Amino acid sequence: MSQAPVTLESQALSKTYYSTDPPTEVLRGIDLTVRTGEFLVIMGASGSGKSTLLYSVSGMDRPTSGNVVLEGRELTSLSDAEMSTVRLTRMGFVFQQPHFLSNLDVRDNILLPALKAAPRGGRHAAVTRVDALMARFGIAHLKDHGITQVSGGQLQRASICRALAGEPAVLFADEPTGALNSTMSTEVMDALTDVHRDGTTIVMVTHDPGCAARGDRVIYLRDGVLVDSAELGPWQEDEAQRREDELLVWLRKLGF
Predict the structure, then answer these.
(1) β-bridge mates for residue 40, sequence order
(2) Can you say whether the dihedral through the CA atoms of 7, 95, 76, 85 is positive or negative?
(3) pTM for the whole thing?
(4) Which strands make up the sheet holding 24-35, listed edge to edge?
């Protein structure tokens, strides 16, 4: 059986902060492969390096050593301007807080990066795609609303639309449900699951086993080292509780 193609990988990825005495090693030689179309979840205790790993492989932070390759292109040697272009055109991001511009309505917040990423003459296609995404995720009726006029769950769905508007190779999510109640969390995870079923590659950091159970694979970090991984397979709604229970057993064995 042929292996799935690879969208993202890191080799011997390390991150050390020298502003502390002694220096703080946050990542220690991480080798990671993310298959095309995979939903990969990163877990670990607080301070284990989860978010640092996500930021390092997405080019938001530069590793101290090691390599990151996206779609066959080595990223760690790129200039800041080149890396910004890659993030804009080949990556999408969903954070715990949406980070929208308060002077723009919901639709324009989603549309702005899509327009910046669009090729010359591609404005119409970008607008059409954004409107289709907003309709798909049930927020089209909020297009003219200010960002303070919608719920946290609706803002996160808008964040997912914004992340997908540029047709990224991979969507990165850092604790996307961390600031939401259980109902809103389910809404957001349903949206991400829907995105993944379309074939989008997702890399998500979470501390919530229920959210993690949505992934195809979960990796576990401890003190900046990748210590284990669990293959969960494709998500099935009727297997939700079983997947979460099995994942919890695995996590507890790792000291979570």
Answers:
(1) 203, 217
(2) positive
(3) 0.95
(4) 24-35, 6-17, 65-70, 73-74
Give me the domains of the chain, ranges plus CATH numbers.
6-99+168-253 (3.40.50.300)
- Distance separating alpha carbons of residues 201 and 192, to the nearest angstrom: 10
DSSP readout, the chain?
Answer: -PPPPEEEEEEEEEEEETTSSSPEEEEEEEEEEEETT-EEEEEESTTSSHHHHHHHHTTSS--SEEEEEETTEE-TTS-HHHHHHHHHHHEEEE-SS----TTSBHHHHHHHHHHHHSPTT-HHHHHHHHHHHHHHTT-GGGTTSBGGGS-HHHHHHHHHHHHHTT--SEEEEESTTTTS-HHHHHHHHHHHHHHHHTT-EEEEE-S-HHHHTTSSEEEEEETTEEEEEEE--S--GGGHHHHHHHHHHHHHHTT-
Scored b (16 or more CB within 10 A) or e, 115-127 reads: eebbeeeeeeebb
Positions in the chain whose pLDDT score sits under 50: 1
What CA–CA distance (Å, rounded) separates 208 from 136? 26
3-36 pLDDT, tens digit per residue, is 779 999 999 999 999 988 899 999 999 999 999 9
Nearest of 43, 38, 53, 42 to residue 7 by alpha carbon: 38
Cα–Cα–Cα angle for 249, 255, 256, rounded to 5 degrees: 75
Q: Three-state SS for 195? A: helix
Q: For residue 224, is it left (φ>0), alpha (ψ between -120 and 50) or beta?
A: left
For 37-55, what is each residue's pLDDT tens digit?
999 999 999 999 999 999 9
